[in-house]
Amino acid sequence: MTLQQWCFSYRGRLSRRDFWIWQGVWLVAMVMLFTLAGNNWLDTQMAAFCVVCLLWPASAVMVKRLHDRNKKGWWALLVILAWMLLAGNWTMFNGTWQWALGRFVPTLIFVMMLLDLGVFTGTAGENRFGSEARPVNYFGKPNYQ
């Protein structure tokens, strides 16, 4: 798999190793963006634009990892639901419901998705989304196999 397929294609399957490499790249990028924006070295709108630009590769990696687990990419929408629940204003409910809808359910979704994508192995052999996951060729060297 090429670097472009890794970041921008929703087809195929992705191994746990390459999923965790993306998570590391994403985390470093977020820390850098928020540090630069927090110190006023980067405009907040530019940092937000960069975060939005990273949504496509993040979703592509997540969908390919779901494919490796033999699940449809639509399961990735659970992450959007969790973010929406986290950002929601739940003051109309009493304390327990505020905590449940605003903190517990999103945390549960994030933990379950992280376990499913990052810990559990993919389907052995071919599944409905293609052949077994191949490693990403990060440096563009020809792969003579």
Mean pLDDT value = 90
Strand content: under 5%
Low-confidence stretches: none
- The SSE order reads HHHHHH
C-alpha end-to-end distance: 13 Å
Q: Please report the total strand number as a whole number.
A: 0
- The helix/strand class is mainly alpha
So what's the overall shape?
A: flat
Q: Strand count, sense and closure of the main sheet?
A: none
Query: Over all CA atoms, what is the radius of gyration?
Result: 18 Å
Provide the helix percentage: 55-70%
Number of helices, where a helix is a run of at least 4 consecutive DSSP H or I residues: 6
Write the layout of secondary structure elements.
Elements: H1 3-8, H2 16-38, H3 44-53, H4 55-68, H5 77-87, H6 95-118
Defining key terms:
145 residues; mainly alpha; flat
Q: How is this structure best described in words?
A:
Keywords: Membrane, Transmembrane, Transmembrane helix. It holds the Pfam family DUF805. This is Membrane protein. The protein has 145 residues and is mainly alpha-helical. The chain has one domain. 61% of the residues lie in helices and 0% in strands. Helix 2 packs antiparallel against helix 3, helix 2 runs antiparallel to helix 4 and helix 5 packs antiparallel against helix 6.
